[in-house]
Amino acid sequence: MLWWDTPTGMNPQRAEMLLPLLKLQPGIIHNNRLGGGYKGDTETPEQYIPALGFPGRDWETCMTMNGTWGFKSYDDKWKSTETLIRNLVDIASKGGNYLLNVGPTSEGLIPEPSIERLKQVGQWMKKAVCTRS
Known about the structure:
Elements: H1 12-18, E1 42-43, E2 58-64, H2 81-93, E3 97-101, H3 112-132
Helix pairs in contact: 2-3
């Protein structure tokens, strides 16, 4: 998969210059973030869950665990574990994927609030899988 992440103002002329890259890997799947009006193979809403998902298309919701994509020492608006699990269930129930950003520090460390929540989500998932077996 090729994950485009180009500026929102990408115009068709600039996007067309990048399209030949797709021919380097026949059959490659690419997202809708090239810009310039190119839809790609997948939808990637950011920081929200579409009410109906995207019937007939692959998609993933991209979200942060707090309010920022990169690490910010002052961003302490962490989503609760309950919210993260509810988001996961909502997205999965609509056929989507949950791309959850953790925003490591400049030293590559995952902030403790992220680790705590990820462990709790993992414990919930383990229980959910065990009860289905």
